Fold this protein.
Amino acid sequence: MASGTRARGGGGRLKGVLSSPVGRWLPVLLWMAGIFYFSSRPDPLGFVGARPGDRDALGHAAHVLEYAGLAGWLYRALAPGEVGARPYLLAGLLAVAYALSDELHQMGVPGREASLGDVALDAFGATAVLGLLYLRRRRSGLSVPFVHDTQGPPC
């Protein structure tokens, strides 16, 4: 048995780690920590050196992309072996709940304020990526979510 593991070159071990609960949830937690870090900054886009007129567009794009990423990681963490709408709905609800908590957190950051418009942008990003994941899964014909298909196509 040990020699079989060596024959695979350790690829099976990495696949096992990535599909473990830690491997599925660690990226979610790191992504959330990144969102929290930037939300804690009075000027989260200060490092890009954008002109004042460009800040709104950059801020909107950042919201959409942040929460598209979060929803994608949440889907990956929630989806192993799941068939149906449940992982999509949970990922979307958790992403929007985090967006709401993030806006509440920003109320205590000097120079920041809470905005339902930002939550709407976050929800749009989450919904867009989950919709794309759903469409891709339907087109691929997989019986389990494609993002976390560790067994290959069904036989």
Residues 1-8, 144-155 have pLDDT under 50 and may be disordered. The radius of gyration is 19 Å.
